[in-house]
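During the second half of the funding period, the structural biology subgroup turned its attention to how the target accommodates small molecules. The most pressing case was iron/sulfur cluster, which had performed well in the primary screen but for which no bound structure existed. We therefore specified the complex as follows and requested a full 3D prediction, including the ligand pose.
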Amino acid sequence: MLQQTTVATVGEYFRRFVERWPTVEALAAAPLDEVLSAWAGLGYYARARNLHACAKAVVERHGGLFPQDEPALRALPGIGPYTAAAIQSIAFDVPASAVDGNVERVVARLFAIETPLPDAKAEINVRAASLVPDERAGDYAQAMMDLGATVCTPRNPSCVICPLTSGCQGRQLGIAEELPRRAPKAEKPTRRGLAFVLSRRDDGAILLRKRPEKGLLGGMDEVPSTAWREGKLVPETAVAEAPVPGRWQVMEGLVRHTFTHFHLELVVARAVATTGRLGEQVPGASWCPIDRLSERALPTVMRKVIAHAVKG
Ligand code: SF4
C-alpha cells in the first residue's frame, strides 16, 4: 500500500484491510472484487490485484509462508527487486539491499553521485549494497528508509543531526540538496472522453460496468464512457457512443484526474432510464443503488464523475 502512497493516506485502509483479512490464507480466499472494493480510493489498483494474486501463490506454492530467497520471492506476482529485498531484510533479517526512493536519495548524497536518475540507479544500487551490514539487516533497512524520510529530506536536509554527516560527500561538496539529479521528464499527454451516468428513474440507482481485467484500472467498476483519447473532444458528437439510446444531457464543467502517464479530462453526460431493463442492453453492466456505491470497487476518477453528475 505504501508504494507511491503516503502513510497518512494508507493508515485507515491498512487497518481495515488487515482486520478483514488477517492472514495470507484469508486474503487468498477472498473474492478479487471485495479486495478491489476495499482498495477503492487508494489508486494504483494493480497493487491490489497483485497482492491478491500473491497471497494465492504463497498459499498454493509455499503453504502460506513467504519464501526467504530472492528467486522464489521474485517469482511471486507484484514482487520486484525492491519488494523482495524489503521482505528479505525486514521480515527475515537477510542482508539484502532494499533501495526505495528515500534510500536512493541518501545514497546519492552520501557518495555525491551526480549522474541524473534514472541512469544513476545502477551506481546507487551498487553503493547501497556495499553498506548493508551482515547483522540486523532489517533494522538497517528501516533506519535508512526513515533517515531518508525524516532527516535526509528532498529539501532542507537536516545534516546537522544526521548520523552520516561526517562521511557525507554531498554535504562536503555543498551539493547535497541538489541530489539526486533527475533527467527532465516528458510532458504528460491529456486524454479526453465522455462519461455516461445513467440513473434508474424509480430509485436513482446508477448503471455500472466492469473494466477489463487487464490494463489501467483493471477489474474495477466504472460508468460507461467513450474511449479516452488524445485530441479534441466534441461532446455533442461523442454522445452518439452512449451505451443506450436516451435523452442524454451533456453537463457543464469537466472532471479532471491525473494518472501516472497521462492527464484525463472527462465531460459527463447523464440520462434517466425509465425502465431498468435498459441496463440489460449494456454487456456486463448492473444497477447499483446510490447508497451502496461505497461498497463497489469504484476508482477515485469514477467517484468524481458520479459526484459531478449527481450534484449537477
Ligand atoms: Fe543527507 Fe545531509 Fe545526512 Fe548527507 S549529511 S546523508 S545530505 S542528511
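Two results from this model are relevant to the next phase. The pocket of iron/sulfur cluster is lined by residues 106, 109-110, 151-152, 157-159, 162, 164-165, 168, 170-171, 176 (CB under 6 Å). The chain is about 40% helix and 15% strand.
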